[in-house]
Amino acid sequence: MPSIYFWRLKHISPQGFMEGNPAFRLHGTVQENYGGVSFDGQSGFLTTDMSATDCLMDPGLCSYKGLSIGMNLKFDQSVKDYKEPRYLIDTGAQSSQTRGVSMYIKDGKVFFTLAISQKVWEVSRKLFVGCHFHALQ
User: What is the reported pLDDT for 49?
Assistant: First the structure.
């Protein structure tokens, strides 16, 4: 059975959670905004608990030898000024010693990194600002 993760970033529960598998816990300023949520990834962010053997934590363990991540995004002008990474998702993909996936914003670009025990891949693309777009990795 493949691992399936999903998060509908639309509604915040009164207990400070967001629906999904597994649910997200909210930290700092996270607000419902035009059918989605807004947060800056620094003072406001989302967390969840996952096992080290989950596919997102170690993509080399994905049962169907594949992984895709898709999300609808809209950024304001301030993202062009981010000089340090601001993570959209991060399970530790900095090196093959810290396997996982990461998607972050820095220097006007969106980066996607995937790390398994043998290799690390990273791609980037210039950001679209002020409009919705679908990112699929």
Answer: 82
